[in-house]
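SEVERITY: medium
COMPONENT: batch folding queue
REPORTER: lab tech (J.R.)

DESCRIPTION
The queue accepted two submissions in a row. Attaching both inputs and their returned structure tokens so the on-call engineer can compare them side by side.

ATTACHMENT 1
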Amino acid sequence: MTTGNSPAAATGTAPRRGRAARTGAAVLLLLTTVPLLFRAGGSDGVTPVPQLLAFLPWLLVPGGTALALSLAARWRPGLFWAAAALLGTAAFIPSYAADAPPPHGPSLARLRVLTANLEFGRATDGLLAALRRERPDLVAVQECDPERCAAALDSAAVRAAYPYRLLAGHGASEGSAVLSRFPLSPDGEVAGELAMPRAAVTVPGHRLRFQVAHPMPPLPASLDTWRTELGRLRDLAASRGPEPLIVAGDFNSSRDHAAFRAVLDAGLHDSAELAGLSRTPTWPARTTPVLGAQIDHVLVSDALRPRAARFLDLAGTDHRALAVDLELHAAP
């Protein structure tokens, strides 16, 4: 008579566990390797690749788990595969193009920029508190709904602090706003499903362009729209002319997305990255700063240099806000 603890039973169990470990390792390695291949190839691919690329540093977790499973199963190909996946992930984690050339011209002005996605206007009170506390000079607001956000921005207190504004779009997610302490005028827009207005702003004696960014998220049904709208932001950056340009908002993309890197490659720099806050997560706010992706950005052209940046928690939204102190320099 044999029992479950007999040598025969143990002999049958060990191969099954080994096969299960190898299978689990292979699945995890595919999950890790496929987005890495697209990242290396400069493409965002199709679902679920863009979604996984947003959390690229976290691919170290399935890669490390696959390494442990391969070791337990004594699966040599898995060990080499996992090591290559971990090294590949680590290679993409360092900062991207953080060595922007220093401005050559003299300093002309200093200004503070704030961008905030209010999640259908739910974080309007949080935004008002941030305006009082941070006192930004230029503000880009996304998901500014008519009932709460737009009405609050029309209050006497906000108008006194920000006498110049630009509102665009209708609905809870489509609405965007620009607030300014400096005179501004409408300067067109980037076409998109969500409003992306642009203002020409006169900072005492100097003119710059301020663009709100809010392309569609890279959901399976809107991937083509996401790429197209990021491409339009890239085209704006590439054809910006001599005037300084700020593009601020919820880009729904991180620098591990090829479509976002194309915007940077058109001549813009990520303020948070230049301020030493690369990869600081902004979404989803419930899990930041432990887990998340940096998809909210303030991008600037060469004449603008960030002096400091900080991320702000606003109650009621799934995004963190971003405040950046900028210095405007004259052209060389």
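ATTACHMENT 2
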Amino acid sequence: MKTYKSYYNQITKEELFEGLLGNGLFANKIPSVFTSEQFFDFVLKKDPGFPKKGSYDFIRYENMRNINVPRLLAIPNPIGYHNLIKTIVDNWDELTTFISEKTSNQLYKVSKVHIRKKKDSKSLFEMNYKTYEDEPNKDVDLIIGKRYKVHGDISNCFPSIYSHSIPWALLGKATAKRKSNDKLLWQNQLDFYVRNIKNQETNGLLIGPHSSNLISELILISIDHELVKMKYKFTRHIDDYVCYTKHKEEAEKFLVDLNHELKKYELSLNHKKSIIDELPHSFVSSWVRKLKNHRFKLYKNEEGKEFQSLKETEVFLDLAIDLMHSEADNSAILNYALNMLSKKPLNSHAVNYLVKRVHHLCYIYPYLIQIIDKLVFTPFKVMKSGKKAIAETMFDLGIEKQSYEACSYSLFFALKYNFKIDGFNMRYESFKSDDCVFMTLAYLYSKQQGKCLTWFYVRALSLQKKDFDKYWVYVYEVLKEINLKGPYKAMKKNKVSFIKPEYH
């Protein structure tokens, strides 16, 4: 019987270490001024012998989702995170053996999200992979002979994962409980270091660091393994299950069996999102088809170069907004539409219109500020004045609504494109927010603008004494070597920075 071959055993220990430590400390959704590459290089060259005991707090960062509801992301302490990654790497052979055993009964790849090698990137994980040539849509095979589609969602997945359930998955629950006090077992060490980056709390994986995506898979593939043994035909995207069945009774039983398997690991089914639909059912949402089927009319200028007009751009954006309203304000439609437009040859009038329209849309849907650099500023070479106008509006909105992600991205744009945000005292606003990422960007911005940095230094000294872990990147970047202690002092001496060189 030919079965699915895992991506995991294609990754060497060296690639895993660099991918998770050098490129997986900071979440992709955080403004991209941060990096752990220099920290990774320092660890490789110096073998610093970081302390293994103790526990660490973490930086909190509120990230606006495309449903206009924030979620809490985390930036773990680098030393605690290093210890976790080192434990994963040191036991990679055992982990890949475990993963192979848990996926050996799969005729197709059940989980749609794994860490993997990527082209042109040392990072091993991203939330939305593009389809690979060797990964066709398996749903079209799974639906043959089926009449029902079942959607099952794990309730609050990452925050609900119990750290002790990691050795439960790796050893079996009975064995893990019997050997729970054996500190030499690598399975228990993995449990310990997962807790170590979260104040030794047993409930919840941090959302953001890429290690969490790997660790969650250890538990979820164990659940998949049992469901495959029951002959269910299903796929899973992170915490989202889709199963195809012949009969409605079988669809209902899948939800019962899924919930039963989840409970073994202290997880539960989100019954409000559990849906059974009768087939046939479209694989692609109607709004996706309508946007894809939109016929863009291109014109040619005097040199024969094609362009898209202002009118065409207006019509397409109006279509996207109408679809969004008809789909219960599904803001993901705007992402999709802007991504399509970013590949079109807009003329200057169309670009000017797009920038103004996006300026307004960001105010209504603040999550858009995360994508406009990639989908608007860069492809259309937007003038500095247009970027500045959007940044100032979003900064003002962020202060008003206490949505400090908007402030952080505004400062990121100001740093990247070298403009000034007028009318605000950055030190005062960032300190009032108590938001570490905002404070760090305010410091970098003030430094770029030649402002006095004394108060940033005073605040860093204060935070170092009472709450270092919750503000570690700010404290570390602001203070000098003489002010730091232990491994942080050695890191500073070796010119390690968690800020990309172009933003210093």
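NOTES FROM REPORTER
The beta strands are 58-64, 70-76, 148-153, 233-237, 240-245, 275-278, 298-300, 306-308.
No errors were logged for either attachment.
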